[in-house]
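Training component of the fellowship. As part of building independent skills, the fellow (R.M.) carried out the full modelling exercise for a liganded target. The chosen ligand was fe (ii) ion. The inputs are recorded below so that the supervisory panel can assess the work.
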Amino acid sequence: MPSNHIAAPYRYIVTASSERWSFAYLHKHIDWQEEELIMFGKAVKSPRLVAFYGEQGVCYSYSGQAYYGRGIPDWLRPLFAKAYEISGQTFNTVLCNLYRNGKDYMGWHSDDEPSLGPAPKIVMYSAGATRDFCLRLKGETSQRLIQSIDDGSWLEMQAEMQVVWQHALPKRLRVTQPRVSLTFRQVIR
Ligand SMILES: O=C(O)CCC(=O)C(=O)O
Ligand SMILES: [Fe+2]
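Fellow's submitted model of the complex:
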């Protein structure tokens, strides 16, 4: 663990079941895409499915891909409203991830693209299988914080999290069930 005086750079919020969007609902409505990544010069399938929604005219470059906003579908608006209620921050895009089982993962990174501004607040909603979400300070490889993320929970990542921390969703081979995460971001035009 990073030393005890370092406060976790996020707020984890579990909602009442009546306030949740279910995995089945999100899985059905989101237009999932399988993407390819270039790793060591070779095209490989991304270890998760993804989808992007953004306001018309917003362009977001992430992980070597450019995504273009084509408007927020009506069914997603209540989730944007909840993300605002939690964080007091407006968002104009959401990047969605589908981890089909515990073999799907996301490697260490910070969401620090210049288009998000110098210290962006990002809010994430999760549904489906419980997964471990890991954090470490940049430049620190052995010590980490682990937050178990449950169905129907929100994670409000504070602004400093993308500046001095990295996060990852590691493989968990004993997890057989799928999970979705929706990460709300404000792209600065
Ligand atoms: O799914 C997760 O828990 C992490 C997602 C994430 O870090 C991202 O979309 O940038
Ligand atoms: Fe991230």
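The panel noted the following from the submitted structure. The chain has one domain: 10-185. The mean pLDDT is 94.
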